[in-house]
User: Fold these one by one.
Assistant:
Number 1:
Amino acid sequence: QAYERSCSCCRRSGRRKSESSTRGCGIVVAIPLISIACLVVLIAEFYVNGLDRDPNDQSQDCYYRLELGKSLFCAASFQRNMMIGPANQVLLRMGAKENDAILN
């Protein structure tokens, strides 16, 4: 059986490259890498949201918190961020798009 050497998932499945989808092998790698990258950025946002915060202060910007050693990871309350994420200021500091700054 003559398999294409460039696509390892085609060899594992026993299909020829011409029989497999043209994008199937790339998706197998891309989805886990993108998911891991998004998770790493989310954890970094929680860390930045917890910087310079008092661990005893229960503000809306640091409503849900996790202390690991000396590090504080915070998520904003649902009133501030409905997506269980950091405060808006942290998102802007880390590169979020601000429509007013783009338009004006």
Number 2:
Amino acid sequence: ALWNNVKMISWVNDVAAGKIDAKLFVNSLTGVQFCALPENEFYARAQAQLGDEEGMVEIAKTLYLGMWTLIVDAKTRKRRPDGSIITPKQEEEERKRTEEKRVERARVWAEREKHL
């Protein structure tokens, strides 16, 4: 959603495999604006370029579903405060480090309690 117009055009061109004019399809929209488009607008924009051609529906559907796949993915991924994505491997490593620290603190407290 935070993509600029150039990135949106590039994404549309990649997803549509060059079957439509991505610059015309995206127009001057940014990623946030593009994500706010209703589904019927995708079909209207594809139809404006391709008419009632059979592939028009498939291209519009592919773009719409692709956009929502990115939105859902972005919302469900775990991220650091700086916005970078935390991979499952990194998450597991962090969990292990946290567990090791917890075990060490428990050991230190157990040692302290012996002297009380």
Number 3:
Amino acid sequence: SSSSHHSTASYQQSLYDPAPAPAYMNQQNEVHDLQTNLANLSSTVTSLQRDMGAIAQSNRTADARLQRIDEANNSIVEALNRNSADLRSFIYNRPWASMRQQR
């Protein structure tokens, strides 16, 4: 009697716990997941490469602009140096002193 009770209990248990999927089903699911991940990675890499290209292009543009700013700054420095030299010679020659003397 106890053995028949046991078999009934295990039968009822199997109603609640579905049987595990066969191994080949799991493998098919894993293969599908891997294929999906691979496709996602591929498109991620493609968009990263596109982004890197855009960044490289904008770096080149910024580089050219900085080059022009450098050249403009050099011109400004040269002009300031000339102004300083003119100012020094003006102060050294003191034209206002001679003007006052002429009066």
Number 4:
Amino acid sequence: AQTKELVEPAAVALVGVGISTILGCVGFLQGMSVASFGDALFVLLGTDITRFVLPVIFCRFFVPASGSEGLRARFAWAAVVGVAASANMYLRAEGRLHNFSLLFGTQAASY
């Protein structure tokens, strides 16, 4: 019962940290008003990061490898799989990778 109480806030925190990190990396947060922050989030929803990477992170976090997999392990694996998804997307855009083997391999290894 205590684990279930931690999952929802943890998921919200994971998504919030992910979005904040993405926005921070792009440089959106420097001197930004609340309105422009909202505009930036709206634009972000149309990007490949939110269409591809965040669903992969969400899936790995909420589909644990076993009943005994802890919250920290799920966070860690979700982050690793998210980085692999980002790298896979980047390498495909550059033409250096023509499939999803990096993502699928990392996803399989996480289980």
